[in-house]
Design brief:
The chain has a six-stranded mixed β-sheet, sandwiched between helices. A five-stranded mixed β-sheet has the order 7-6-8-5-9, with helices on both faces. It folds into two domains: 239 residues, D-Maltodextrin-Binding Protein, domain 2; 97 residues, Periplasmic binding protein-like II (D-Maltodextrin-Binding Protein, domain 2, 3-Layer(aba) Sandwich). The two termini are 25 Å apart. It has 15 helices and eleven strands. By secondary structure, it is an alpha/beta fold. α3 crosses α11, α7 packs across α15 and α12 crosses α13.
Length: 347
């Protein structure tokens, strides 16, 4: 799944993320990189600013360079759909911070992607926010209202799930397709009365005249929103050591959060352009997965043979069914999502 709180401040802050000079970042630069990237060439990694998130620690502290070599280029995207062209062209062998729908859209178009790291499950950091002045009291009350969302992202799936449970026909809702920064602006100008979005814009709406109507904690695990990292299957199979180093770098971010929580909150706040207090609230709204969690039944599966029954694969299938029903994608849901989930690089 996911982007900008104080727009001008954050855009400039995030643009400099790769050069943030925290003590840990300096240490990471001085460390000898692994040999994983030998013969792999220049490596591009895409990511999103999802607010307080362990992957932003890996970016800020230069763990990708430490684990994969110095010839790593980081590219910021404002949303998952915005990254699809680069993913489809093969320019990005790795991408983080994605929701399921953009990944499904890419796979449906024949892009050889696999989920290699499930970063976290949203619980309190994403959902449906309504303006207190709108008079909307329930999901059914969205009929005739303007709702902002990133069509083709996790927000499409969440809104469809909320609507189905409430018996709301989405054809009665005025859907406004916006990027997260545009969504924040539309909220401020009164163009929309409700929104389905994730942090940090989610928190902005809540603190600027919004009320949470539904959040992801109300959804079952297999229907909820995840931030996931994908690899180009062709690239990763040719360079498995690079893929393992990529996963290791992500795990380093989680470990830093677990072992240096106060410092980690400061790193995430600076990188995401938010306050430490906000970072603390946001990180509490996730169920975060470490490297050791990846190869378990609840996350990616214990092996390639069991990946199809993993929590991530089941969520992917449920997202796919919802997107197909909504007409967002025209490719029928496959019988199994096992081929699109790979726990082996986390072992």
């Amino acid at each position: 799944m996911h982007v900008i709180r104080r727009m001008t401040r954050v855009v400039s802050t995030v643009a400099m993320v790769a050069g943030i000079a925290t003590p840990m970042a300096v240490e990471a630069v001085r460390a000898t990189p692994s040999a994983a990237s030998v013969n792999a060439g220049s490596i591009a990694i895409g990511y999103e600013n999802n607010g307080a998130d362990p992957s932003i620690i890996s970016v800020a502290n230069k763990y990708f360079q430490r684990e994969m070599g110095h010839d790593v280029r980081l590219k910021l995207f404002t949303s998952g759909p915005a990254a699809l062209t680069s993913l489809a062209s093969g320019q990005l062998p790795f991408m983080c911070g994605l929701g399921m729908p953009p990944v499904i859209a890419a796979i449906a178009q024949g892009v050889p992607l696999q989920v290699v790291f499930n970063q976290e499950r949203y619980t309190k950091d994403a959902g449906l926010v309504v303006k207190t002045s709108s008079g909307i009291k329930s999901v059914a009350g969205l009929a005739g209202k303007s709702v902002g969302l990133v069509i083709g992202s996790q927000s499409s799936f969440e809104l469809a799930t909320y609507a189905r449970k409430a018996g709301l026909n989405l054809s009665s809702v005025r859907l406004v397709n916006l990027t997260p920064p545009e969504l924040q602006s539309a909220w401020a100008t009164g163009r929309i009365e409700a929104a389905v979005v994730w942090d940090p814009v989610y928190d902005f709406l809540v603190t600027h005249g919004g009320r949470v109507l539904m959040d992801d904690s109300k959804l079952p695990v297999t229907a909820t929103s995840f931030n996931i990292c994908v690899a180009n299957k062709s690239f990763a199979s040719k360079h498995p050591a690079v893929a393992r180093a990529f996963v290791k770098a992500l795990g380093d971010g989680v470990s830093y959060l677990q072992n240096h929580r106060t410092a980690a909150l400061g790193v995430m706040a600076k990188a995401a352009g938010i306050s430490v207090a906000t970072a603390k609230v946001e990180i509490a709204g996730y169920q975060i997965y470490s490297v050791s969690d990846q190869a378990t039944a609840a996350v990616l599966g214990t092996s390639s043979a069991t990946s199809a029954t993993s929590g991530t694969a089941q969520s992917l299938l449920n997202n796919w069914r919802a997107l197909y029903r909504a007409g967002t994608i025209t490719t029928r849901t496959p019988k199994s999502a096992g081929p699109f989930v790979n726990p082996n690089y986390a072992k």
